[in-house]
Amino acid sequence: MAANYWASTQRRHWLFSREALTDVRERLREKDKVTHSQFPLPDQRLLNIYFNQQLIKLGKRMTTRQQAIATAQVYLKRFYTKNEIRQTNPYLVLTTAFYLACKMEECPQHIRFVVGEARGLWPDFITPDVAKLGECEFALISEMHSQLIVHHPYRTLSELQTELALTSDEVALAWSVINDHYLTDLPLLHPPHVIAIMAIIVAVVFKPSPPGAYLGSAQTALASTMREGQGMNMLAALTDKPGSGPPKIQKLVAWLAESEVDIKAVIECTQELLSLYEVWEQYSEKHCKELIGRMVKSKNLDK
Amino acid sequence: MAVSPFASRSPSLTVSSPNAALRLRAAAAQNASGPVATAKSVYSADRELTEQLNDDVRQKYVKDKRLGEGTYAIVYLGYLRDNPSSYVAIKKIKVNAEYKDGLTMDAIREVKYLQELSHPNVIALHDVFSSKDQNLNLVLEFLPRGDLEMLIKDTAIHYGAADVKAWMGMLARGVWFCHENFVLHRDIKPNNLLIASDGEVKLADFGLARSFADPYLNMTHQVITRWYRPPELLYGARQYSGAVDVWSMGMVFAELLLRIPFVAGNTDVDQITKICEAFGTPTEENWPGVTELPNYIPPDNNHLIPLQGREFFLRQFPTAGPVGADLLMSMCALDPRKRSTAVQALRHAWWTIEPRPTKNEDLPQKSGAKKMGEDLGRRGGEIDDGMFKNAARQLDFGAMK
């Protein structure tokens, strides 16, 4: 975290309303209908899951931080609000986003190493020429108007840990929920503190049993619990009068009421997360890989 | 304000050159043989609007003569096309030359922080645009009246305690603002403190800046030009705070008073020795934990210098007066935990006692001022002297984990 979120370029230039975001994407689609029908791609969230997995693979042998992966994911989202994905080589773009994000989050990696790793993973899509990555970096920075600082919800989570007396299990689960929110459009739609609070509520209200390791994502732990609907009712209670439910939740409700955080936004985020976990069931890595591969490859051959 | 010709201080939009984007597109089709032409036309249609935006920004300025050149940038004088008397400095980052390694951390850091920070005592970034040869151009506030180093060195200029108070006040406010926004500058020294045409001091060169690390994460200790580097960094501390900038501020303060650098070591070890001689030997008593720092050097027990007290500062810096000496002492505490923070420094009694700080318009200034950007041949963290070449900055990747 650097600088003040309220005065940040993230808040001023990269926060969309849902309608505006749909609009931006619709316009990209309108411009190139043919390619769109020619190369169907999976649901954006499924693509995001795929990209996230690729980023994690890429970062595996380097000492990267979760926060750099998160920043890279936000860069991808920002970039693809300006560019049609079907006009790019997603593997190059995600490698570049990763490379730039590492520099930005103060865990820089040498360009050769990054290209080497990327080539090892996707030999068909990444050339050994590091200048390609350099050029793509320039394009990425330009498309983002050199606005590179990303504010993440992780810091808010750690700050609220003591205040809300969260257990380490709850923090771990909330952390995983934050990891998962990068698979949705939420980082473009809501400020980081709203996301952090959503993650805390989900962790406290939907606390899965038995608690355990969440391995980065909360999907397996939460998907079924959330679908059972019990949690949703409890969440609805958040907006009603406080005073029901277990003491911990009551305390959270009281705190929220005083905090002036936009509760509606928090609920919207929860629903978005729930629908992510639903759509996740359809995820197939092979399918994503094939569609992207076909798109990138045949754009070389047919045109 | 110096040259602030824009209604809005928020840097406006910019967009990549068609070139870069095209190559990006071409990279997608790496083995393409014939299709490039079609692809190009599709792409350019796509890009008309964004290109137009970038062109609008670029067209706003006229690049004039070159002011200086550095390792990663060339600085030009520029002005608004609509108003030739409103100057700006255009810092062109040499992207092409750096392609093989991507953009340098210096360039990235500078853009990253200046995009977000806006304060009267921090150099303003008005715009960013890219030019057709794929260079990133930063349009910066033009600061024509040189820097504090020139004023200190120019023996023809006489200045007094009230002037020092004015300059230090502006420096302290700039540093406070950075820290308030969780940014460490890490290269505060007189020649990074530029002076605007109205006399305002501006913190410049964010090539070494970074945001506060998350708790327990390491940062590099290879920052800050040696003479302004605090003892904890010389001892290799990997976790530190705004206190490092406060030490540098103290050194600038001392230098303004003495008109020569106060502790000017020839090597890092010599720097520690000189700091010990000046302020006292760090020990477990006056700085708990110091002996555990990675590069801690045990002192010669026969030459332990006691921690210097108030009398020492008064004797060394009579022009500061007792209250000024007290402020300086608080900025030069060896133990970073005992050093004052930027806020504490700003709340010190010295600012409100006589003499009052000189008004900006009455501050002494150099006549034939050196132009901004002239010293760009140096990298940040280096001293203008062959002897100390490559002193501070070895930002190797290994050290930054």
Automatic annotation (TrEMBL), chain A:
It comes from Penicillium cinerascens. The keyword rRNA-binding does not apply. Belongs to the cyclin family. Cyclin C subfamily. One of its GO terms (molecular function) is cyclin-dependent protein serine/threonine kinase regulator activity. Keywords: Activator, Cyclin, Nucleus, Repressor, Transcription, Transcription regulation. It is found in: Nucleus. This is RNA polymerase II holoenzyme cyclin-like subunit. One of its GO terms (biological process) is regulation of transcription by RNA polymerase II. InterPro entries: Cyclin-like_dom, Cyclin-like_sf, Cyclin/Ssn8, Cyclin_N. The lineage of its organism: Eukaryota, Fungi, Dikarya, Ascomycota, Pezizomycotina. Residues 53-142 form the Cyclin-like domain. Component of the SRB8-11 complex. The SRB8-11 complex is a regulatory module of the Mediator complex which is itself involved in regulation of basal and activated RNA polymerase II-dependent transcription. The SRB8-11 complex may be involved in the transcriptional repression of a subset of genes regulated by Mediator. It may inhibit the association of the Mediator complex with RNA polymerase II to form the holoenzyme complex. The SRB8-11 complex phosphorylates the C-terminal domain (CTD) of the largest subunit of RNA polymerase II. The keyword Repressor applies. Pfam families: Cyclin_N (PF00134). One of its GO terms (cellular component) is nucleus. Component of the SRB8-11 complex, a regulatory module of the Mediator complex.
From TrEMBL, chain B:
It holds the Pfam family Pkinase. GO terms for molecular function: ATP binding; cyclin-dependent protein serine/threonine kinase activity; RNA polymerase II CTD heptapeptide repeat kinase activity. It catalyses: L-seryl-[protein] + ATP = O-phospho-L-seryl-[protein] + ADP + H(+); L-threonyl-[protein] + ATP = O-phospho-L-threonyl-[protein] + ADP + H(+). GO terms for cellular component: cytoplasm; transcription factor TFIIK complex. Residues 357-387 are annotated as: Disordered. Residues 371-382 have a biased composition (Basic and acidic residues). Residues 61-351 form the Protein kinase domain. Keywords: ATP-binding, Kinase, Nucleotide-binding, Phosphoprotein, Serine/threonine-protein kinase, Transferase. ATP binds at L67, G68, E69, G70, T71, Y72, A73, I74, V75, K91, K92. InterPro entries: CDK (IPR050108), CDK7 (IPR037770), Kinase-like_dom_sf (IPR011009), Prot_kinase_dom (IPR000719), Protein_kinase_ATP_BS (IPR017441), Ser/Thr_kinase_AS (IPR008271). CDD domains: STKc_CDK7 (cd07841). One of its GO terms (biological process) is positive regulation of transcription elongation by RNA polymerase II. The active site is at D187 (proton acceptor). Signal peptide: none annotated. Belongs to the protein kinase superfamily. CMGC Ser/Thr protein kinase family. CDC2/CDKX subfamily. PANTHER family: CELL DIVISION PROTEIN KINASE, CYCLIN-DEPENDENT KINASE 7. This is Protein kinase domain-containing protein. It comes from Penicillium cinerascens.
